[in-house]
Amino acid sequence: MTPDLLFHKTYTHSSSKEWVVFVHGAGGSSNIWFRQIKAFKKHFNVLLLDLRGHGESAPLKTKSLLPSRYTFKDVSQDILHVLDHLAISRAHFVGISLGTILIRNIEELAPERVKSMVLGGAVTQFNFRSAFLVKLGDMFKHVMPYMWLYRLFAFVLMPKKSQSLSRNMFIRDAKKLCQKEFKRWFKLAGDVNPLMKFYKESRTKTPLLYLMGEEDHMFIGPVRESAARHPSAQLQEIADSGHVCNVDQAVTFNQYSIDFIQSQISIDVEPQQEADIVLRR
């Protein structure tokens, strides 16, 4: 049986054949990319989607996507089904927060589909504070309204006044989740460290750009270590920005991302041009 498709929206470019797929984080929606759309669609075809149970991919509209427990493989396959439906064979992926783990998982499941990865506010490991928060949430998720927990996480991740827009967007979108849906996604948090330990030991060859806010105190340390270990990875730290750096400093985020993706396109094009010259000879 063909699986239900996630809600998705495309912006097609008049001449470019390159696709950029945006993947949001847990509790959010494709609305988080509102400051990226205008800049990216000038250069590329753009695909936005809402993860299962989020945004317009709400439970009532996607019942067949809702088992009792989610896995990163299941949620990653949802995204690949959308690419298959749209006949997108390869794409560049841009993610934020938990969406960065899904992109890494897609790259592991189907590396031939991923041309490059831009991972904003990347989650590569839970440190003591973030692991403690997850443990605390796990203890109280059955007795405490999920929005209380989500607000707590949002304020811990994005505590500064300058991060209020990012924080409020995440809280607003999370209100669309139901309690059961929140629990399904929350259980995924327990799989983060084992999965990322695997990626730590398995070096990717896919071009990778980490974009991290300098004030992303929860996750920037492990990302620095990860970037130093992987030859194919680059790291750019964005000043005056927290975890959701694509909102806090959108212009800088867009410039770094677009420049990086275009550089990878030029690398792909050059060998083909050389092959064409040889054939003409």
UniProtKB/TrEMBL annotation:
Statement: the UniProt record of this protein carries the keyword Phosphoprotein: no
Gene3D superfamilies listed in its UniProt record: alpha/beta hydrolase (3.40.50.1820)
Keywords: Hydrolase
Keyword match Manganese: no
Organism the protein comes from: Thalassotalea litorea
Domain AB hydrolase-1 as annotated: residue spans: 19-122
SUPFAM superfamilies according to UniProt: alpha/beta-Hydrolases
GO MF annotation, one: hydrolase activity
Protein's name according to its UniProt entry: Alpha/beta hydrolase
